[in-house]
């Protein structure tokens, strides 16, 4: 036998010995971890995660790109403060404010429900009516879970339109954020859209005009690594010299072949289009296909009184498409979008206000609810809860607030709009698979936000050696 052959056999023999030792260790570990009472089943141990506090972040105040004196146009400053409503399955909700970066901050509120014997749920929403110089209108938003991916369907960078993306990091580590921006021409390629660092427990404000100019239709996909992010978008409109509205865009549902926008207000859209610079005052459904195939889309529009219609459209891949929503009477609507490929969606409407100006409202798509969801509706003009049933089964939904409750029948494919208490905790039960949103409609403007499902809590897992 040659020397090289002998070495190969020696190595193989050593590997075999190691394998035998590892196998013996595994068997010993299995007997240590597993149960000796039932040797016929795989050994293992059930591990229950330690209950953790629940956190969500509210959008914060209205913003302008300057200070009170109109100076320092590179830094965002707050205007007033919103009304915030909270809910929890725990004992209490603590509020704190995240820090500010050099770009300014909307002073976002961090909601924390401390852990008890189990992990709690926490929820909330904000509403603000503002009239300060060029920033006039109402904005509403959901308080959201930190996430590594958020789709913001809305915004514009045309002349007189200011769109700001707020990036809130409630974690204790740096978050590195990338913005994928699309407009009506395709994906935007611009320096500075990647590697945006957001410090722990702080917020950074990013003007969209720093990456794309003179675009009336935008969609932003926010992704992060390291710390997780809560992202919102604020848009302010000035039509020539007249304030044209303010709103906050909440994150919508991830790309899917079915999207539901549960709370859309249409009120005198024709009146909002009178005057100068009103091309973007018409109501639209905004669509974006992140894939490579065109989407064949059917839009189902329903109201609480049983009315409804459908609209067919096509959305090309990689570009933002605005579908006009003309000739619809005033009312509160839900939109159900069925697409041949995964898609994201949002809706924009406008309305005249009692001071002779206009306001705009952005309405995001929502995720299906679980069997029981806690939420809270911030106090605001004409608040309504809108529940959509996209399933094939009729549902009876119960909305409780303290000792009071109301039952709402939502048949398959229909929408129910109900008045609910504001600034109080609500418990929605019987809504498994249904979608809900809140809309506001008053003399000072329109707004809305999606009701978030409960946060997924870690459940016990079985560990095997």
What does this structure look like?
The protein is mainly beta and about 475 residues long. It folds into two domains: about 40 residues, no CATH class; about 400 residues, no CATH class. It is about 10% helix and about 50% strand. Strands 20, 21, 22, 23, 24, 25 and 26 form a seven-stranded antiparallel beta sheet that branches. A five-stranded mixed beta sheet has the order 7-16-12-18-19, with no helix packed on it. Strands 11, 13, 14, 15 and 17 form a five-stranded antiparallel beta sheet that branches. The longest helix has about 30 residues. The radius of gyration is 26 Å and the shape is globular. The N terminus is likely disordered.
Concise overview:
The protein is mainly beta.
Structure characteristics:
465 residues; mainly beta; 2 domains; 7-stranded antiparallel β-sheet; 5-stranded mixed β-sheet; 2 helices; 35 strands; 8% helix; 49% strand; disordered N terminus; DUF5719
């Amino acid at each position: 036998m040659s020397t090289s052959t002998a070495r190969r056999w020696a190595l193989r023999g050593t590997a075999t010995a190691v394998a035998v030792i590892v196998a013996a260790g595994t068997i010993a570990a299995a007997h240590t971890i597993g149960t000796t009472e039932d040797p016929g089943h795989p050994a293992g141990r059930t591990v229950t995660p330690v209950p953790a506090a629940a956190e969500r972040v509210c959008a914060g105040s209205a913003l302008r790109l300057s200070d009170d004196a109109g100076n320092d146009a590179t830094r965002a400053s707050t205007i007033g403060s919103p009304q915030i409503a909270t809910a929890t399955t725990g004992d209490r909700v603590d509020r704190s404010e995240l820090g500010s970066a050099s770009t300014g901050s909307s002073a976002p509120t961090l909601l924390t429900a401390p852990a008890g014997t189990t992990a709690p749920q926490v929820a909330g929403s904000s509403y603000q009516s503002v009239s300060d110089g060029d920033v006039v209108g109402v904005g509403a938003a959901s308080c959201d879970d930190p996430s590594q991916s958020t789709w913001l369907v809305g915004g514009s960078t045309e002349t007189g339109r200011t769109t700001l993306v707020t990036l809130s990091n409630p974690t204790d580590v740096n978050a590195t954020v990338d913005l994928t921006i699309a407009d009506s021409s395709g994906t935007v390629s611009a320096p500075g859209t990647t590697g945006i660092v957001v410090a722990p427990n702080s917020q950074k404000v990013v003007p969209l005009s720093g990456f794309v100019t003179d675009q009336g239709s935008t969609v932003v996909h926010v992704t992060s690594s390291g710390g997780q992010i809560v992202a919102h978008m604020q848009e302010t409109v000035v039509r020539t010299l007249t304030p044209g509205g303010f709103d906050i865009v909440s994150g919508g549902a991830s790309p899917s072949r079915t999207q539901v926008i549960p709370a859309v207000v249409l009120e005198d859209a024709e009146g909002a289009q009178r005057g100068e610079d009103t091309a973007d005052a018409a109501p639209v459904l905004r669509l974006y296909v992140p894939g490579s195939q065109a989407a064949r889309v059917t839009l189902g529009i329903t109201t609480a009184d049983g009315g409804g219609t459908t609209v067919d459209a096509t959305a090309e891949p990689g570009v933002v498409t605005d579908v006009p929503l003309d000739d619809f009477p005033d009312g509160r609507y839900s939109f159900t979008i069925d697409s041949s490929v995964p898609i994201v969606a949002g809706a924009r409407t406008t309305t005249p206000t009692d001071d002779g100006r206009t306001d705009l409202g952005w309405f995001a798509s929502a995720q299906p609810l679980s069997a029981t969801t806690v939420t809270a509706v911030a106090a605001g003009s004409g608040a309504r809860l809108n529940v959509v049933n996209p399933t094939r089964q009729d549902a009876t939904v119960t909305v409780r607030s303290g000792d009071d409750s109301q039952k709402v029948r939502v048949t398959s494919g229909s929408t129910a709009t109900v008045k609910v208490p504001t600034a109080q905790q609500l418990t929605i039960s019987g809504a498994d698979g249904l979608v809900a949103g809140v809309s506001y409609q008053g003399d000072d403007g329109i707004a809305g936000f999606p009701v978030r499902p409960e946060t997924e809590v870690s459940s016990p897992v079985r560990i095997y050696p």
